[in-house]
Amino acid sequence: MGKLSYSPTQRELVRVSDPCPICKNELYYDGRKTQRIGLLDEFESIDGWMCPHCKSRFTPEDKPTELYGSMKVEGEA
């Protein structure tokens, strides 16, 4: 995920890119928010995230589990 850093003298934001690994649409929103949609399991623990543009789903470690909202991804490449 992209990060922001502040210049100690000018206090200007430096934007770092945060594209979706599948569709490459930008997920960066601002220094405190992202466009990534958090996914929870039945115990309300973080189970992963989803891209709002292509509906692909990912583990918290950014490994894809579902592509374009329908194709399941299994195993290692």
Strand percentage: 25-35%
> Residue share in helices?
under 10%
List the uncertain runs.
Answer: none
E-strand count: 7
Folded structure, characterized:
The mean pLDDT is 83. This protein is mainly beta and 77 residues long. A five-stranded antiparallel β-sheet has the order 3-4-5-6-7, with no helix packed on it. It has a two-stranded antiparallel sheet with strand order 1-2. Helices cover 0% and strands 27% of the residues.
Quick structural overview:
The chain has strands spanning 5-6, 13-14, 37-40, 46-50, 57-58, 64-67, 71-72. It is 0% helix and 27% strand. The protein is mainly β.
Characteristic terms for this protein:
single chain, 77 residues, mainly beta, five-stranded antiparallel sheet, two-stranded antiparallel sheet, 7 strands, 0% helix, 27% strand, globular
Task: Describe the protein's topology.
Elements: E1 5-6, E2 13-14, E3 37-40, E4 46-50, E5 57-58, E6 64-67, E7 71-72
Antiparallel strand pairs: 1-2, 3-4, 4-5, 5-6, 6-7
